[in-house]
Amino acid sequence: MTxxxxxxxxxxxxxxxxxxxTGSRSRDGAxxxxxxxxxxxxSPEVCRHVKGATxxxxxxxxxxxxxxxxxxxxxxxxxxxxxxxxxEAARARMTHLREAVGACGRFRFSNRFGKSSVTSEVLxxxxxxxxxxxxxxxxxxxxxxxxxxxVTVVRVxxxxxxxxxxxxxxxxxxxxxxxxxxxxxxxxxxxxxLIKNVTKAGxx
Length: 204
What we know:
Elements: H1 3-9, E1 19-28, H2 35-39, E2 41-43, H3 48-51, E3 62-70, E4 78-84, H4 87-103, E5 106-111, E6 114-123, E7 131-140, E8 146-156, E9 159-169, H5 174-178, H6 185-203
Antiparallel strand pairs: 1-3, 2-5, 3-4, 4-9, 5-6, 6-7, 7-8, 8-9
Helix pairs in contact: 1-6
């Protein structure tokens, strides 16, 4: 699919009930390498797939993305990304991600903002698309506190759709931290609609 087709498959304001979309963008070809990515290290290296599920791997033919927030707020962004590959490449990317999530219950990364340790857990995912995976990570950011992410990844043919929820927190006790854990409920309906959009776009 082209960038134009992927962008057309993104959620519309009418479909994203309960959320506000801040805008969208698309591109044909792989994303240019950023200097920030070049400076980041992840250990073990395979866990880079877990941390950067919404990012391309340099093999995508086209991509589109948008960000939305719960209506009336400017916290806990939901990042939506669509990436198009030859179908076999999309299948392989899902396999690599699934293997990485299984192997990366704990990992570390460092960049210009500092060092962080991460734990991850695989969650149940609804029957979406042709292949689906959901997991949640908790990053410990030193004195800055924590950041939860909830990631749902779905493949439809050669398109991989990702919905990532980020919930940053300040320093807090483990008991209080657990109450901020993102759950999939608020995004379930819009994620299902997104996959319907992608399926429809891919069949035309």
